[in-house]
Design a protein that fits this description.
By secondary structure, the chain is an all-alpha fold. It is built from 15 helices and two strands. The protein has two domains: about 5-70 and about 135-195, Bacterial muramidase (Helicase, Ruva Protein, domain 3, Orthogonal Bundle); about 75-130 and about 205-265, Lysozyme. Strands 1-2 form a two-stranded antiparallel sheet.
Protein backbone atom coordinates (compact mmCIF):
# COMPACT_ATOMS: atom_id res chain seq x y z
CA UNK A 1 0.00 0.00 0.00
CA UNK A 2 1.37 3.38 -0.96
CA UNK A 3 2.93 5.52 1.76
CA UNK A 4 4.43 8.11 -0.55
CA UNK A 5 3.73 11.21 1.50
CA UNK A 6 5.61 9.80 4.47
CA UNK A 7 8.47 8.47 2.41
CA UNK A 8 9.19 12.02 1.29
CA UNK A 9 10.46 12.83 4.78
CA UNK A 10 13.16 10.17 4.48
CA UNK A 11 14.71 10.87 1.12
CA UNK A 12 17.10 13.64 2.16
CA UNK A 13 18.98 11.45 4.62
CA UNK A 14 19.10 8.53 2.22
CA UNK A 15 20.60 10.72 -0.48
CA UNK A 16 23.68 11.03 1.69
CA UNK A 17 23.73 14.81 1.60
CA UNK A 18 24.58 15.09 -2.09
CA UNK A 19 25.07 18.65 -3.23
CA UNK A 20 22.56 18.58 -6.07
CA UNK A 21 19.87 16.16 -7.14
CA UNK A 22 19.83 14.84 -10.67
CA UNK A 23 17.72 16.97 -12.97
CA UNK A 24 14.40 15.42 -13.98
CA UNK A 25 13.13 15.37 -17.54
CA UNK A 26 15.34 15.72 -20.58
CA UNK A 27 17.69 13.00 -21.71
CA UNK A 28 17.00 9.81 -19.74
CA UNK A 29 20.51 8.39 -20.10
CA UNK A 30 22.04 11.61 -18.85
CA UNK A 31 19.67 11.56 -15.88
CA UNK A 32 20.65 7.97 -15.05
CA UNK A 33 24.33 8.86 -15.27
CA UNK A 34 23.74 11.66 -12.73
CA UNK A 35 21.86 9.26 -10.46
CA UNK A 36 24.72 6.77 -10.65
CA UNK A 37 27.16 9.48 -9.56
CA UNK A 38 24.86 10.49 -6.72
CA UNK A 39 24.49 6.88 -5.58
CA UNK A 40 28.24 6.36 -5.54
CA UNK A 41 28.67 9.58 -3.55
CA UNK A 42 26.19 8.11 -1.06
CA UNK A 43 28.25 4.93 -0.66
CA UNK A 44 26.86 2.60 -3.32
CA UNK A 45 29.62 0.82 -5.20
CA UNK A 46 30.26 1.31 -8.90
CA UNK A 47 29.63 -2.40 -9.35
CA UNK A 48 26.13 -2.12 -7.94
CA UNK A 49 25.26 1.07 -9.82
CA UNK A 50 26.56 -0.33 -13.11
CA UNK A 51 24.66 -3.59 -12.70
CA UNK A 52 21.45 -1.89 -11.60
CA UNK A 53 21.40 1.15 -13.87
CA UNK A 54 23.31 -0.02 -16.92
CA UNK A 55 20.92 -0.24 -19.85
CA UNK A 56 17.87 0.72 -17.79
CA UNK A 57 15.06 2.27 -19.85
CA UNK A 58 11.88 4.11 -18.85
CA UNK A 59 8.69 2.10 -18.48
CA UNK A 60 5.70 3.85 -20.12
CA UNK A 61 3.27 1.53 -18.32
CA UNK A 62 4.53 2.78 -14.96
CA UNK A 63 3.95 6.39 -15.96
CA UNK A 64 0.49 5.58 -17.31
CA UNK A 65 -0.45 3.86 -14.06
CA UNK A 66 0.96 6.72 -11.99
CA UNK A 67 -1.09 9.29 -13.88
CA UNK A 68 -4.37 7.48 -13.39
CA UNK A 69 -3.69 6.33 -9.84
CA UNK A 70 -5.33 8.24 -7.02
CA UNK A 71 -3.67 8.08 -3.65
CA UNK A 72 -6.85 8.64 -1.70
CA UNK A 73 -9.74 6.30 -0.96
CA UNK A 74 -13.03 7.13 -2.63
CA UNK A 75 -15.07 4.39 -0.96
CA UNK A 76 -16.74 4.56 2.42
CA UNK A 77 -15.35 2.35 5.14
CA UNK A 78 -18.30 -0.03 4.77
CA UNK A 79 -17.78 -0.30 1.02
CA UNK A 80 -14.05 -0.79 1.32
CA UNK A 81 -13.99 -3.28 4.18
CA UNK A 82 -16.59 -5.47 2.47
CA UNK A 83 -14.18 -6.02 -0.42
CA UNK A 84 -11.10 -6.67 1.71
CA UNK A 85 -12.12 -8.59 4.82
CA UNK A 86 -14.34 -11.59 4.23
CA UNK A 87 -14.70 -15.04 5.85
CA UNK A 88 -11.95 -16.58 3.71
CA UNK A 89 -9.37 -13.97 4.64
CA UNK A 90 -10.38 -14.05 8.31
CA UNK A 91 -9.98 -17.84 8.39
CA UNK A 92 -6.65 -17.51 6.59
CA UNK A 93 -5.49 -15.00 9.17
CA UNK A 94 -6.47 -17.26 12.06
CA UNK A 95 -4.51 -20.08 10.44
CA UNK A 96 -1.46 -17.80 10.22
CA UNK A 97 -1.86 -16.88 13.88
CA UNK A 98 -1.69 -20.56 14.80
CA UNK A 99 1.10 -21.46 12.39
CA UNK A 100 3.36 -18.60 13.49
CA UNK A 101 2.31 -18.36 17.15
CA UNK A 102 5.83 -18.72 18.57
CA UNK A 103 7.28 -16.18 16.14
CA UNK A 104 4.51 -13.69 16.82
CA UNK A 105 5.05 -14.06 20.58
CA UNK A 106 8.73 -13.15 20.15
CA UNK A 107 7.81 -10.14 18.02
CA UNK A 108 5.22 -8.95 20.54
CA UNK A 109 7.77 -9.19 23.34
CA UNK A 110 10.42 -7.26 21.42
CA UNK A 111 8.34 -4.58 19.69
CA UNK A 112 5.12 -4.31 21.70
CA UNK A 113 2.80 -4.58 18.71
CA UNK A 114 -0.08 -7.10 18.89
CA UNK A 115 -0.03 -10.08 16.55
CA UNK A 116 -3.56 -9.36 15.35
CA UNK A 117 -2.56 -5.99 13.91
CA UNK A 118 0.50 -7.49 12.21
CA UNK A 119 -1.42 -10.38 10.67
CA UNK A 120 -4.18 -8.01 9.56
CA UNK A 121 -1.66 -5.83 7.71
CA UNK A 122 0.02 -8.91 6.24
CA UNK A 123 -3.32 -10.18 4.99
CA UNK A 124 -4.42 -6.86 3.51
CA UNK A 125 -1.12 -6.21 1.74
CA UNK A 126 -0.40 -9.60 0.19
CA UNK A 127 -2.91 -12.20 1.44
CA UNK A 128 -0.23 -13.48 3.84
CA UNK A 129 2.45 -13.60 1.17
CA UNK A 130 0.37 -15.62 -1.27
CA UNK A 131 -1.03 -12.66 -3.20
CA UNK A 132 0.39 -10.30 -5.78
CA UNK A 133 3.34 -8.31 -4.45
CA UNK A 134 4.20 -6.88 -7.85
CA UNK A 135 6.05 -8.11 -10.90
CA UNK A 136 8.00 -5.02 -11.96
CA UNK A 137 11.77 -4.44 -11.71
CA UNK A 138 12.04 -1.99 -8.83
CA UNK A 139 15.04 -0.09 -10.19
CA UNK A 140 13.41 0.45 -13.58
CA UNK A 141 10.15 1.53 -11.95
CA UNK A 142 11.84 4.03 -9.64
CA UNK A 143 14.16 5.34 -12.34
CA UNK A 144 11.09 6.00 -14.50
CA UNK A 145 9.27 7.85 -11.72
CA UNK A 146 12.39 9.74 -10.64
CA UNK A 147 13.00 10.98 -14.18
CA UNK A 148 9.41 12.21 -14.36
CA UNK A 149 9.23 15.68 -12.84
CA UNK A 150 5.99 15.29 -10.90
CA UNK A 151 7.66 13.91 -7.71
CA UNK A 152 11.26 13.61 -8.71
CA UNK A 153 12.78 14.35 -5.27
CA UNK A 154 10.70 11.61 -3.66
CA UNK A 155 11.51 8.98 -6.23
CA UNK A 156 15.17 9.90 -6.54
CA UNK A 157 15.38 9.17 -2.82
CA UNK A 158 13.53 5.89 -3.28
CA UNK A 159 15.85 4.90 -6.12
CA UNK A 160 18.90 5.59 -3.96
CA UNK A 161 17.34 3.54 -1.16
CA UNK A 162 16.69 0.65 -3.56
CA UNK A 163 20.33 0.67 -4.62
CA UNK A 164 21.35 0.65 -0.96
CA UNK A 165 19.23 -2.48 -0.38
CA UNK A 166 21.30 -4.22 -3.04
CA UNK A 167 24.54 -2.71 -1.70
CA UNK A 168 23.79 -4.07 1.78
CA UNK A 169 23.17 -7.53 0.33
CA UNK A 170 19.62 -7.72 1.63
CA UNK A 171 18.25 -8.65 -1.80
CA UNK A 172 19.99 -9.60 -5.00
CA UNK A 173 19.26 -7.35 -7.96
CA UNK A 174 17.20 -10.12 -9.58
CA UNK A 175 14.97 -10.18 -6.49
CA UNK A 176 14.27 -6.46 -6.59
CA UNK A 177 10.76 -6.97 -7.92
CA UNK A 178 7.81 -4.92 -6.74
CA UNK A 179 4.72 -2.91 -7.49
CA UNK A 180 3.99 0.24 -9.50
CA UNK A 181 5.62 2.67 -7.06
CA UNK A 182 8.54 0.41 -6.17
CA UNK A 183 6.96 -1.20 -3.10
CA UNK A 184 8.73 -4.42 -2.10
CA UNK A 185 7.73 -7.54 -0.26
CA UNK A 186 4.91 -9.17 1.63
CA UNK A 187 3.87 -6.00 3.44
CA UNK A 188 4.84 -3.67 0.60
CA UNK A 189 7.62 -1.48 1.98
CA UNK A 190 8.89 1.41 -0.06
CA UNK A 191 12.70 1.17 -0.28
CA UNK A 192 13.23 4.09 2.12
CA UNK A 193 11.07 2.32 4.72
CA UNK A 194 12.93 -0.93 4.01
CA UNK A 195 16.18 0.84 4.91
CA UNK A 196 14.77 2.66 7.93
CA UNK A 197 12.64 -0.04 9.55
CA UNK A 198 13.86 -3.36 8.13
CA UNK A 199 14.83 -5.98 10.74
CA UNK A 200 16.83 -9.19 10.30
CA UNK A 201 14.70 -11.35 12.58
CA UNK A 202 15.68 -14.77 11.24
CA UNK A 203 19.35 -14.09 11.98
CA UNK A 204 20.75 -14.77 8.51
CA UNK A 205 22.46 -11.40 8.24
CA UNK A 206 20.03 -9.95 5.69
CA UNK A 207 16.71 -8.12 5.77
CA UNK A 208 14.59 -10.07 3.29
CA UNK A 209 11.07 -8.70 3.06
CA UNK A 210 10.17 -10.82 0.06
CA UNK A 211 10.87 -14.33 1.36
CA UNK A 212 11.47 -14.29 5.13
CA UNK A 213 8.28 -14.25 7.20
CA UNK A 214 10.20 -13.42 10.42
CA UNK A 215 11.80 -10.42 8.73
CA UNK A 216 8.48 -9.32 7.19
CA UNK A 217 6.50 -9.39 10.43
CA UNK A 218 9.27 -8.00 12.65
CA UNK A 219 9.96 -5.14 10.25
CA UNK A 220 6.26 -4.28 10.13
CA UNK A 221 6.19 -4.32 13.92
CA UNK A 222 9.32 -2.15 14.08
CA UNK A 223 7.71 0.49 11.86
CA UNK A 224 4.65 0.67 14.10
CA UNK A 225 6.68 0.56 17.32
CA UNK A 226 8.96 3.34 16.12
CA UNK A 227 5.86 5.37 15.25
CA UNK A 228 4.56 5.08 18.81
CA UNK A 229 2.19 2.09 18.74
CA UNK A 230 1.58 0.80 22.28
CA UNK A 231 0.66 -2.76 23.22
CA UNK A 232 -2.56 -3.15 25.19
CA UNK A 233 -3.98 0.22 24.16
CA UNK A 234 -7.02 0.73 21.90
CA UNK A 235 -6.39 1.38 18.23
CA UNK A 236 -9.72 2.75 17.06
CA UNK A 237 -10.13 6.04 15.27
CA UNK A 238 -9.07 8.98 17.45
CA UNK A 239 -6.63 6.99 19.60
CA UNK A 240 -2.84 7.46 19.73
CA UNK A 241 -2.38 4.00 18.22
CA UNK A 242 -4.62 4.91 15.30
CA UNK A 243 -2.41 7.94 14.72
CA UNK A 244 0.71 5.77 14.99
CA UNK A 245 -0.64 3.64 12.14
CA UNK A 246 -0.63 6.77 9.98
CA UNK A 247 3.02 6.04 9.21
CA UNK A 248 1.79 2.79 7.69
CA UNK A 249 -1.00 4.37 5.71
CA UNK A 250 -2.42 7.87 5.97
CA UNK A 251 -5.92 6.87 4.76
CA UNK A 252 -8.43 6.72 7.60
CA UNK A 253 -10.47 4.08 5.76
CA UNK A 254 -7.45 1.81 5.46
CA UNK A 255 -6.44 2.18 9.11
CA UNK A 256 -10.00 1.46 10.20
CA UNK A 257 -9.90 -1.65 8.03
CA UNK A 258 -6.72 -2.83 9.76
CA UNK A 259 -8.45 -2.44 13.12
CA UNK A 260 -11.63 -4.15 11.90
CA UNK A 261 -9.63 -7.09 10.56
CA UNK A 262 -7.64 -7.38 13.79
CA UNK A 263 -10.87 -7.46 15.79
CA UNK A 264 -12.26 -10.22 13.59
CA UNK A 265 -9.06 -12.23 14.08
CA UNK A 266 -9.58 -11.92 17.84
CA UNK A 267 -13.14 -13.17 17.41
CA UNK A 268 -14.80 -9.86 18.22
Amino acid sequence: MLRLLFAAALVASLAGGSAQAARCGGDFNGFIASMAQEAQAAGVSAGVTNAALGGVAPDPAVLAFDRRQRYTFNKTFEQYVSTRVGPGRINGGRAMLQRHAALLSRIEQKFGVPRYILVAIWGLESDFGKGDTGKLPVVRTLATLAHDCRRTDLFQGELLAALKIVQRGDLQLRDMIGAYAGEIGQTQFLPSSYIKYGVDFDGDGHVDLRHSIPDVLASTANLLHTSGFKMGQPYGEGTPNFEAMREWNRAVVYRKTIGYFADRLMGQ
